[in-house]
Amino acid sequence: MAFDYRSLRGKIKELYGTQDKFAKALGIGRVSLSQRLNNILEFSQEEIQRSCELLKFPKDEIPKYFFNMKVHKDERNNVH
To answer: Locate the HTH cro/C1-type domain: which residues (predicted)?
Structure first.
């Protein structure tokens, strides 16, 4: 199962400028954050909670940032 983290990436850039700065604030390494944003590792519940605080969004918006399903484009529909 893959999640689409575009909204989360945008919020990180808006408030922290770089993923590196956000990773430090979150208490994980830059590579660990990158692995999570690229669906290699999963965010822990603690990391999600802390992200809400750091990125200043209400808990009811967690699904918007962390649980949007990645939609795979079906190449057969691109026939011209």
So the answer is: 8-62
Separation CA 31–CA 55 (nearest Å): 19
One-letter amino acid for residue 56 of the chain: K
Residue with token string 């999963």: 42
* Full set of structural domains in the chain with CATH: 6-65 (1.10.260.40)
The residue with tokens 């967690």 is: 62
Q: Tens of pLDDT along 11-34?
A: 999 999 999 999 999 999 999 999
66, 12 in Cβ contact below 8 A? no
Query: Which residue blocks in 27-73 are alpha helix, DSSP H?
Result: 30-37, 45-55, 62-66
Cα–Cα distance for residue pair 63/79, rounded to 1 Å: 34
